[in-house]
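W.,

You were right to be curious about this one. When I first looked at the sequence I had no strong expectations either way, so I just let the prediction run and decided to look at it fresh. Below is the sequence, 515 residues in total, followed by the output.
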Amino acid sequence: MAGRRNVLLIVVDQWRADFVPCLGASFLHTPNLDRLCREGVTFRNHVTTAVPCGPARASLLTGLYLMNHRAVQNTVPLDARHMNLGKALRLIGYDPALIGYTTSTPDPRTTGPRDPRFTTLGDLMDGFRSVGAFEPSMDGYFGWLAQKGYRLPERRTDIWLPEGEDAAPGATDRPCRIPSELSDSAYFTERALTYLKGKGSKPWFLHLGYWRPHPPFVASAPYHAMYRPEDMPAPIRAATAEEEAAQHPLLGHYLEAIRQASFFERADGRGAELDGREIAQMRATYAGLISEVDDCLGRVFAYLDETGQWEDTLVIFTSDHGEQLGDHHLLGKIGYFDESFRVPLVVKDPDAPEVGGRIENAFTESVDVMPTILDWLGGDIPRACDGRSILPVLHGSRPADWRRFLSYEFDFRDVFYDQPEGRLGLGMEEASLMVVQDERRKYVHFAALPPLFFDLEKDPHQFRNLALDPAHAVELRDYAQLALSHRMTHAERTLTHFRATPHGLENRLVPTTTA
């Protein structure tokens, strides 16, 4: 391998794990992701440790659990004191480039209340250099369209409406107005190629973000018609939304509150009202958006091939979170079901081509991405980091003390587009949940709502809550204790390894020597 070491971190948005061909989605056409899976390792049991976008990306890029970084919802600020991947890369001589977005709200103590970043859903995380901005408010993309000569409508987001329509008719098989060569995926790809061609032979790190398959669920031609609705997997859900809602008050809130307009431009009605035909069409469009991203990745991969950089580059493919897609009658990334939290993770390490094509079953989490990149580049992993480098697992040497279960969190406090606190009778700091799950069981702990407990062997899709079943009381206790112990052992620890002694400051992580 050549002397330089490059990193391509691909972060897509709202791509759930079961829409990966090598993990069972044989109906998808993704030749470039397939190549990455053949040359790298695909992690079957990978989760984001938080949803939605802002908290998920904060965990991905800081290596911290939600309980520690506390950017608990979109629009909630990220504490400026936290180390993140961009800052850490600068310490080892990299200028970390970012295409796309991080949905980060700045620490208000570092600026003032009139800062325009407080009027948007999120902005860019400190430490990164933007070389293809999308935020705020997609201005980078819309400006690019105008520069390309595309005449923007007065309401810019109307580009995702079918031609001649004032509102999307919910799930649709019609293409949106914007042609594929001017789509947001094409924009990110052009920005990536511009950046890479400008770097020449210098080492680089690139966070390459794609907005898709995030809604609105409408695709440009020809991707709108690439898949047939009848070929899509059927939704996993109870017979009715009302039956589903009976499981838990939080589920009932979202089944009532989620609107179709968040997923289809100007559509009417609740997400839970979508019928089977509409869900099948929505999934076909979602699959088309995935194939469009895959085609775009093919252009980036081809350039790395042509320039001989593919063999020098660590490539990581992942998503910030998943998408319910009608499962449990839900849309979006919310609650506690696996569809929102299980996401793809594929890693191609040029140092270990012999492991290519393997599917790894070890439990991995989004907080592992930051320490993995720093480990591969020879940097120091911050003491506070909750994740671990997966390089030993990648190379086939899973440590004996590797995690035995997955954990993730969701904070559902009020934000400007959703107010569950009043409906559920909760205070701001009570609106949260934590999940621990292994191959056999899943426990959901709420700060101030009833718990949930599922037998994943008999009920893999989590329809039957066993939390009140006396036959499972001991198991429930054990998993509750597991969740508590996990939180206690991952409490913030930046300085906890230091101590004062009669001989001065002692660092317990540095072995002492004796004469």
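Here's what jumped out at me. The chain has a mean pLDDT of 96. And, maybe more interesting for your project: The chain has 14 helices and 15 strands.

Coffee later to discuss?

I.
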